[in-house]
Design brief:
The complex is a heterodimer. By secondary structure, chain A is an alpha+beta fold. Chain A has nine helices and 20 strands. In chain A, a hairpin with a 4-residue loop joins strand 16 and strand 17. In chain A, helix 2 packs across helix 3, helix 2 runs parallel beside helix 4 and helix 3 crosses helix 4. The two termini of chain A are about 40 Å apart. In chain B, helix 7 runs antiparallel to helix 8. The longest helix of chain B has about 30 residues. Chain B starts with a helix and ends in a 5-residue tail after the last helix. The chains are: A alpha+beta, B mainly alpha. The interface between A and B is medium-sized, with 27 and 20 residues.
Amino acid sequence: MSSLDIEDVHLWYGQFHALRGVSLSIGQGDFLALLGPSGCGKTSLLRSVAGFVHPQKGSIRVGGQDVVRLKPRERNLGMVFQHYALFPHMSAAENVAFGLKCRNVEKAEAEERVARALDMVGLSHLADRKPRQLSGGQQQRVALARALVIEPNVLLLDEPLGALDKKLRVQMQSELKQLQRKLGVTAVFVTHDQEEAMAMADEILIMRDGVIEQIGRPKEIFTAPRTSWAAEFVGSGNVLKGRLGPAADGARPIDLGPGCAFALAEWANLPADGEATAFVQAEAVKLAPANGSGQGLEVVSQRYLGVYVEVQAQYRDGVLRALVSPEEAEAFGVGSRVTATAAPTCVRPMEG
Amino acid sequence: MIPRISLSLWTTLTLIFLLGPLVIIVGGSFTEAPHVTFPPEGFTLKWYAQLMEREDFLESFIDSMVLAVAATAAATILGTIAALALARENFKGREAFRAFLMSPLILPTVVTGVALFQFIRLLEIPSNMLGLIIGHTLITLPYVIRTVGAALVGLDKSLAEAAEVLGAKPARILFQVVMPAIAPAILVSVIFAFIVSFDQVTISIFLTGPDVMTLPIRIYTYIEFAIDPMIAAVSTLLILFAYLLVVGLERAFGLDKVFGKKG
């Protein structure tokens, strides 16, 4: 169980520059999610840590030791693959025992550790089953036990829940998270599902075209995406672009056309005058019925999401998304006119 | 949709077409007439009795067995190694190498036979059996490479990666992960190679000599002079042999597992 430090890692596949100077640092026992669209480099980064690909530049340190030149088998890592990669001719117990055999662990001790690992994932009663006799979720657990039984320095997970159906996936998310916390193992998890990343990670890294777009706690990523690309990828709110007005009541208004009244409480890093980009979460947008017909924004759609109703209203530059309670939503039917605002502290400046 | 009756009709016709010659041979081996007749005239085992007295046929059977076993073993080992090499990524000239290894399938067998004949004379290989083993290994190699290669293409690459990250050295990955996963394909290629070698006439005809003559060549030379029911008796025994071979493998390993059906 170790910390993981990655510094200025560059990886080329021939001409293709897959990782362009990635640096990050996670502490022992942290859970990092690598999030991004396909082809963004998240899998390349994980495979660099595993040792299957070799970055031409940069360093990767596990518990302080640089592993870039080590073979995968010398790194003492646990890895769970997208399609589990269980050895089909071995039973669940033999699969779990494989890493211990490679380490020449004494037979009695190995048997005990295998039994404990299978018990930990709740599969003791299926130890003798072959992978094909197990369900997807059970195979997933065997793969997890196999990766953890060797007491890895870091646990790597390559979209391990991608092949499961929605209900099982949510259940496995919380089991996996609990297990990781209980064992205190440092984990790196690759996913393209932002909800999954939010649900599990202590730290989320959003990647785009081989560079880090943003790294931060889930709440930070959710409420204050650094760029409009990150905001759109996470999809939790609205990117607002407009001209800043002079400060009033400790906030500077951002001009988005009639019907919108948004202001920023934080503007220190923005140009004194001119265009600015800001982010506001859909939950933070407050709607009110507009006075008089033809005023304000027109509601163009409503989407029922259970706890919330998503209301979309047309403003000057596009569609503004707001999440409101189902009771409130009744006042904002499609075709009705509304005005929109948000608390200035919820409107966060972005880099553009 | 083909109507059910028409479908079973086609199936029956196909089976008759495929099995017809076998029925005629097997039936003909029991005839009392001095030539192969169908339906058999009367019933006798005298052709089998006559065959049992022909030591040359027994010797040829043993020659063919030794040859097929040796060539199959050599082709399976070499072919599996070649298939493993061909399955590696980033390996320059892979396609050329593959085409080279598959070329015995593409060249007319007669041409390969002539070439082998010259080659083996040039090298002054002392034993005809050794020459035959070399020739048969060459001709059966493509079957092994194709079958094992297909299994390796279908093999999940992450199996080897999972083993590697768990700490396995290359030898352990090969013998404990990759080989068991492709074992069914290796077994299929053993069957192919054995049958191709055991049936081989064209190559063998160039390489046999006074000390060694394979069974197909023995049959071939015999029927140049006479087609009597003893040949039908030999053929019947060969059919039985092939059947027992397949059933034996089925019992030992389960052919449903061998032939594709993922167990």
